[in-house]
Amino acid sequence: MQREMPSAERSRLSDSLLAMACCLLHLVFAHNCLSEEPRFIDCSLLVAPEYPATWPSAPCPRFQIVHERTIGPNSPYNIDVLLIDGNTGTQLDVPPHSVARPELNRPKSGALGLAYTDKIEAWQFGGEACVVDVRDLLDQAPKGVSPLVRREHVERFEEQYRQLQFGDVVLFRSDYSDKYYRPFPEGRRYLADVLDRKSPGYPDPDPDCMEFLATRGVMTLGTDSASMGPLPDLAEPTHYAGLKHGLIWTEGATNLGALPSIGSFYCLLGPKHEEGPYSEGRAFAIAGGDLPQRLIESCLQKRVVDLSPTLSPKLPITSPGRGTGNHRQVYLKIDFLYSPDLDMWHHTHLMDSMTGTHLVPPSFALPTEGEVPAYAPEVRGWLEEYEKAYGPRGTSDVTTEQVPLDWTCGRVRVIDVRSLIGSTSQKTWPASPEITPASIQAHEQANGKLKPGDIVLFHTGHLDQHLRPAADDSGVWSDPLQGKAEGWPAPGPDAIDYLKDSGIRCVATDAPDLGGVDPKRAIMTYWALGSHEMVGVEFLYNVGSIPSDRDAYFLFAAVKIRDCHGGPGRAIVLY
After folding, report:
1. What element of type H or E holds 573?
2. What is the pTM of this model?
3. Which CATH architecture fits 42-48+89-302?
4. Between the N and C ends of the chain, which has fewer C-beta atoms within 10 Å?
């Protein structure tokens, strides 16, 4: 006769089998994650004049893009000018948005009142995305009033997943921007109708929720609402409750539903404005494979190198051009609203789209398909020479917002070309030492072959040496362009061809640009980049701080501006 197993024993066996099954499922899940290719998830709103990208109340300026020059007799390039406020599209808030400077000795004064966008440590921009689902709050409030995200919503997340901690990026997902960020007139529902009390407000945390997150050690947040400030009267209290603890956050995120609840890497990168209390930015996440955890760990351990110079009217961060009348729009800070509590002017910027660290998309130097540019005679001659040597110059309509995020992020390969400095004869100036395939091959012989997807970064040292305020600023652009000094090392079209054959999509430099000071070689380099569907990242510095003995990962993203032929952004390296 078979003995019946006691109920307690059956229970222990059941629990043991359940634990083994969970362990097995976890191992299978982990294996699948590690073997999965990483995927990039864009969490940024499109910035364009017909979208509700800016705060609609007077006197806040509206976003504008001006196509100042197009490819033709006056320019072989498409050149844009931007009027862009830090509160545009997907954006970054830092403590001085609500914390007053310490010397003011006001109730809200503190050291964090000096933690502007050019001072915040870059490790704080990223971390593990923890997506707190608050979709049940969407539209659940009277007109003009925000439904409040409370600490209970965060605790609900913690009960389901794990306790929040330092290094997490807490993202409040309501799907508000997904639903309401639309071209006008529908786009009024995103913000204007809320302010006019015609529609319910966007969900946002209350001050107590902010205080609770601070106790968990969280330093970075995000919301897919138009602001982190609940309407009608908790916007400033909520901002201050978080910012006084040194928190920073994303406003105007989107597509948070594409992220797993935990486990992906999230970051927001934006231009590094001098004394900026906020900044336009580009938010994205990486999910799948082992890459997210590597990047999360780098941010957690603060292993980061910031490669972007500060944007300031005092610095030579835009090209003066070759010859009179060919300068780009200088970077201007324009005050429009005074905040007496902070003794601070809110401001916007008028700037060339290639100010400071920026993207070079294929359409910068290429016409669209079917377009036959009326080049100047000299440029027509250069084109004939180029096509004879390298084949047909291509066409492209790929502007900044169309460039995939994974084109400008990847393992960085720093190629030191400083040995080329001084290799030109003064009688040939203006001239730049040319980076050739031989320069790249020498690096490969010492460090291994380039791999598809690597970000090739040419280390010239030019900006580290010459980036200075006026009147000591001529070494960056003016002297090399005028033939008073040697130009910075720059790749020629042969080097671009070689990199394309190696599977490289993105070429970067710590020089002012990838073209160099000779206009003929410059346009040929940009024709080669565009024709091969490659992109550039220009105007980096501090490249020498990237550890040569560590597996370093380059992250760059330009602000998602529609029809832009440049694109300001921020570049960092995690290692």
Report:
1. strand 569-574
2. 0.93
3. 3-Layer(bba) Sandwich (3.50)
4. N
